[in-house]
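User: Design a sequence. Structure:
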């Protein structure tokens, strides 16, 4: 039984059960002891009562005997008086205390008791003279005393008989009651054993039920672990997909941003400058929105952080709305906006997220309004609250469909979604962003009349921003800054070195992590910053940084700024860089300005005139236009080509690009060989290397085709890959002609 309890129940449960049983038995024992002692006391009282009645009757008999002896002259008067004193005392004990109370409870002897008291009182009167004059005891007094004693003997005899009968009856009743109690106790013990058995059975059943539940929970735990594993794999697949999509979207968008930057020095009229500014802001906003969508997973996980800074709210709204107002007018839709004059100019907030929310709401309004007007209002409320409203005269939304508007991947009308190619993520992201700002968002709409989307956030008023206009002055690195570039790709080495030297820095190149580690250990006092590639032979970037940080701590050196150079933009890649000890990231491909912005956060800078003017570099407007073909992606990245033209002299740039074109044939031969042998991994790596080189030199079409081959290397058939390679080969000739037409290479190779 004990082994069974140990198997089914925990030690704590067993202790509690045994304690309860022990306490119950202890209570029964104590109750029995109390009952036994009470019964003993009652028995002792009955015995005392019977003994007192017997002593009373016996003393009456002894008094009669003494009286008889005194008449015969056999005893002295003093013996008679002593015997009377004893008789009187026996009477007093019989009628006082607990015995007296018990006598009073006996109603059938009360007459005899009272008669005996009267008799003794009369005898007291007769005997009283004998205390003074014993000689007065004569035959007459003796005869009277003898009569009184005889009568008293009869009374005490009756009292003794009745008392004995009462005690016998009481004990008989007690035995009968005790017999009933024994039966009741036996019945209770039977019930106790039965209930104990039921309790043990219930405990065993409960234990078995608990075991079944534990087993079910264990099975459920395994299922949940498997589900979590599947969810983790799905999340990883989603992250990889987002990383690929990020690269594919960023490539053409970089061309838009670069073209806008190129046109900055071409346009002269104020109206054209305004158009160009709107174009640049739209392109930059689009890039910010893409980055925000890529961060949606982070928002879902609750780890999203806002970048609160002082912002010019009026300027933010004007710049954003100006891009909509300057769009080519649509035939039936107009856009208007109004800003409350009482709206504070400078507030604390995340300008990028605020722009994203507003743009999403306005874009939706324009998308779903076939005819009429879209209005955007900004109002100042009490308590630093600001209300943003977007009103349209579009198709409207029914009340039952409004509840799902802010749910991810949901759209009200599938036919509208097909026409406008929506994903259903925009409003869900807006809701998460507004909630992160401690605000709320909502909608009111009527089908056929239009919709009103609004959100309200609290933005504290800030002091006016003080700073220089970035268009009037530029920062450049001072000549004493020494930067170590760790990069295994020769073309990327040349590009990075050229950009940094253009910015005024001294550059040292290391081809792998081990070489960089040796250089840092030998000349750490001469190096100000490190640009570290992530994937390199011999030793990769993260491992190099980890080893350097250990060396740095062991020798108590000042912390060296180390920036990662990588084409990966997902959060897990950044986390890997930061965990290894890096300080920041610069994403490939990068322009000279982006490179400078990444570096200047970690190095001391000074205000100098524009480097292009100071060094006598020709403005980009003197460069011939880059060749493009209608209906096809551009062969060259115009913005990056002009950056290269500004960075290198003509001879160096010609040698750099000529080397790329010359080595293209070698790369192509390796690609064909890998495809023929179905060495998919090597094919992907070679395509990745070609893609990086093409992006660094502005050969956009070759880079895009190489990226396509890299993505399809694991899934496409050899025949499909052969078609992709043939397309890549044809791009070499057209890219070479485009470089020649742009004046980037001097002549035929």
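Assistant: Done.
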């Amino acid at each position: 039984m004990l082994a069974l309890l140990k198997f089914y129940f925990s030690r704590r449960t067993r202790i509690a059960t045994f304690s309860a049983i022990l306490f119950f038995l202890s209570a029964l024992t104590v109750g029995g002891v109390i009952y036994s002692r009470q019964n003993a006391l009652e028995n002792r009282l009955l015995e005392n009562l019977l003994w007192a009645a017997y002593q009373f009757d016996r003393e009456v008999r002894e008094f009669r005997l003494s009286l008889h002896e005194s008449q015969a002259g056999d005893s002295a008067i003093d013996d008679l008086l002593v015997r009377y004193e004893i008789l009187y005392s026996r009477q007093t004990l019989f009628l006082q205390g607990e015995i007296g109370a018990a006598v009073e409870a006996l109603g059938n002897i009360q007459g005899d008791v009272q008669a005996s008291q009267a008799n003794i009182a009369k005898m007291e009167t007769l005997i009283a003279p004998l205390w003074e004059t014993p000689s007065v005891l004569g035959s007459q007094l003796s005869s009277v005393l003898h009569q009184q004693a005889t009568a008293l003997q009869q009374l005490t005899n009756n009292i003794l008989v009745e008392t004995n009968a009462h005690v016998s009856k009481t004990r008989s009743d007690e035995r009968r009651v005790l017999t009933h109690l024994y039966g009741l106790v036996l019945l209770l013990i039977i019930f106790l054993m039965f209930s104990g058995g039921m309790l043990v059975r219930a405990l065993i059943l409960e234990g078995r039920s608990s075991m079944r539940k534990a087993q079910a929970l264990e099975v459920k735990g395994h299922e949940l672990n498997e589900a979590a594993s599947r969810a983790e794999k799905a999340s990883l697949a989603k992250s990889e997909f987002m990383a690929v999509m990020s690269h594919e979207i960023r490539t053409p968008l970089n061309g838009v941003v670069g073209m806008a930057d190129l046109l900055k020095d071409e346009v002269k009229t104020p109206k054209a400058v305004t158009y160009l500014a709107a174009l640049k802001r739209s392109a930059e906003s689009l890039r910010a929105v893409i980055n925000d969508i890529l961060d949606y997973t982070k928002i879902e996980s609750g780890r999203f952080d806002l970048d609160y800074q002082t912002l010019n709210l009026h300027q933010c709204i004007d710049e954003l709305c100006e891009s909509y107002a300057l769009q080519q007018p649509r035939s039936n839709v107009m856009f208007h906006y109004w800003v409350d004059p009482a709206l504070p100019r400078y507030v604390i907030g995340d300008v990028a997220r605020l722009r994203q929310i507003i743009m999403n709401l306005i874009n939706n309004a324009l998308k779903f309004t076939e005819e009429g007007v879209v209005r955007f209002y900004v109002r100042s409320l009490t308590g630093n609250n600001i209300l943003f409203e977007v009103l349209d005269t579009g198709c409207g939304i029914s009340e039952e469909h409004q509840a799902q508007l802010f749910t991810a991947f949901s759209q009200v009308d599938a036919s509208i979604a097909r026409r406008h190619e929506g994903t259903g993520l925009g409003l869900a992201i807006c809701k998460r962003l507004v909630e992160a700002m401690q605000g709320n968002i909502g909608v009111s709409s009527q089908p056929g009349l239009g919709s009103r989307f609004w959100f309200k956030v609290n933005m504290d008023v800030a002091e006016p921003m003080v700073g220089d206009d970035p268009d009037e002055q530029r920062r450049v690195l001072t000549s004493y800054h020494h930067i170590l570039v760790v990069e295994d790709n020769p073309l990327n080495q040349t590009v990075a070195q050229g950009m940094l030297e253009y910015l005024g820095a001294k550059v040292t190149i290391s081809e792998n992590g081990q070489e960089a580690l040796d250089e840092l250990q030998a000349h750490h006092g001469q190096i100000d910053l490190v640009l570290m590639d992530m994937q390199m032979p011999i030793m990769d970037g993260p491992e190099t940084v980890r080893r350097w940080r250990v060396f740095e701590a062991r020798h108590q050196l000042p912390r060296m700024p180390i920036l990662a150079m990588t084409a990966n933009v997902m959060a897990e890649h950044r986390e890997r860089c930061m965990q290894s000890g890096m300080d920041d990231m610069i994403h490939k491909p990068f322009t000279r300005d982006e490179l400078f912005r990444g570096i200047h956060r970690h190095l001391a800078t000074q205000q100098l005139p524009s480097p292009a003017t100071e060094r006598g570099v020709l403005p980009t407007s003197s460069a011939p236009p880059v060749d493009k073909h209608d209906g096809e992606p551009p062969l060259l990245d115009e913005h990056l080509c002009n950056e290269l033209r500004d960075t290198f002299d003509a001879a160096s740039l010609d040698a750099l690009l000529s080397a790329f074109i010359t080595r293209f044939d070698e790369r192509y031969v390796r690609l064909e060989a890998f495809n023929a042998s179905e060495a998919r991994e090597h094919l992907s790596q070679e395509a990745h290397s070609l893609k990086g080189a093409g992006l660094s030199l502005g050969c956009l079409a070759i880079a895009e085709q190489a990226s396509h081959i890299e993505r399809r290397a694991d899934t496409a058939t050899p025949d499909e890959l052969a078609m992709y390679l043939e397309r890549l080969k044809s791009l070499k000739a057209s890219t070479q002609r485009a470089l020649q037409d742009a004046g980037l290479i001097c002549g035929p190779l």
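The chain has a mean pLDDT of 78. The two ends are 97 Å apart (CA to CA).
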